Amino acid sequence: MNITFEYDGVKASERLEALIVKKLNKMESKYDFIVQAHVFLRIQNTSSPMSGKICKIQLSVPGPLLFAEANTKSFEASIQESINDLERQLSKKKEKMKSH
Question: 46-99, pLDDT tens digit by residue?
């Protein structure tokens, strides 16, 4: 799987990239039809201390693209929330693919 990273207002972080690659590779081993992942990390100025670190992940799979976005107080939490959302979407997609 090809993974690309895009940063907006955030310095590139090897630690965050390694975390994302690990989680996406684990996901790919479970769902072998994932072709590509595009990850966006962004900081947004907010008045709430519980948000502002945004992680968006777009997966290329057969059919429509899958997309998840999370906005929490840390990138780690946003990444985990996005991954969990994509897991649910991939599980549904796999069930649909089995039925055809």
Answer: 888 888 999 999 999 998 999 999 999 999 999 999 999 999 999 999 888 887
| DSSP, residue by residue, 40-67 | EEEE---S-TT--EEEEEEEE-SSSPEE
Q: How far apart are CA 100 and CA 95, in angstroms?
A: 9
What CA–CA distance (Å, rounded) separates 40 from 57? 6
* DSSP label at residue 75: H
The strand ranges marked E within 1-100 are 2-8, 36-43, 53-60, 66-72
C-alpha dist (Å) from residue 95 to 23, 77, 98? 21, 27, 5
Cα–Cα–Cα angle for 4, 77, 18, rounded to 5 degrees: 40
> Is the overall model pTM greater than 0.85, yes or no?
yes
5: nearest Cα among 39, 54, 53, 43: 39
